User: What shape does this take?
Amino acid sequence: MMSEPQNLPLADELQPPMANGEVLFAEPWQGRVFGMAITLHEAGVFTWPDFQAELIKVIAGWDADHQEVEGETDEYRYYEHFQTALHQVLSNQGVVSVEALAERSDSFARRPHGHDHH
Amino acid sequence: MSETTAAIRAEALESLLTERGLLSAEDVDAVITRYNERVGPMNGARVVARAWRDGDFKARLLADGSAAIAEFAFEGGQIDKLVVVENTQQVHNVVVCTLCSCYPWAVLGLPPKWYKDPAYRSRIVREPRKVLKEFGTEIPREKKIRVWDSSAEVRYMVLPVQPQAWQGLAEAELARRVSRDSMIGVTVLDDV
Assistant: This one.
């Protein structure tokens, strides 16, 4: 279960839209992906520089394909990049293959309505 | 990629990792709780407040940020090579990571959304004065702006200027007033 978003003690110091007490994760899956990455890193499954190198590659690729348009940055999806980088580093390490993940994702996507968590 | 697909892939990955005995749902929950409740800019604010009140600590902090804050034993990581840059009457510092939104989690928590946006990452380097103005921060022409771009290992944090009116406040009271954005350098602390 996700915790409730925190109210930082500093929130009253700030003004929108740069509010301090932001929700850390806009969607629950983002928190799961972040939590998995930290857990695995702390368990020594991969080094942070290895993960960071993948993240830099993913973001550079995205930036190259998306010319900056004033006021149109909302579609930017940091945690999707984070997720892609995590998949890549786990695949590099031979922990979870791209195929195994695709297969499991497909099988979850085919679950009947009413079962999935969305 | 749609949100649904990302959510399903996250669930699929967690199930595979759980089956392989590499993590449990409780491990992931614990990380989320840690970052929601204990890792955040309130920690950086304590560092700033101590630096303002304790000249020796400030000197150590500016000389070697990671070593100086080790005594706080903050959780959160990403501060193995922390460099603290001091705002002065002559220089205003602001932090970015143009490559991947690196950020000193242990002192500032996870970065706000705008810090990760391509617009901030590219524009703060190109036109810092203009971007700061959009944050409501007017830096006088005569003051120099330095933009610090996080690299592979180095993380930066700004030591803001202490408002005159805050002289004499206790450390805990000061810490309560230091904002996250002032430690990124996109705002300055007001005298009020």
Summary: The two ends of chain A are 14 Å apart (CA to CA). The mean pLDDT of chain A is 78. Chain A touches chain B through 66 residues (CB under 8 Å).
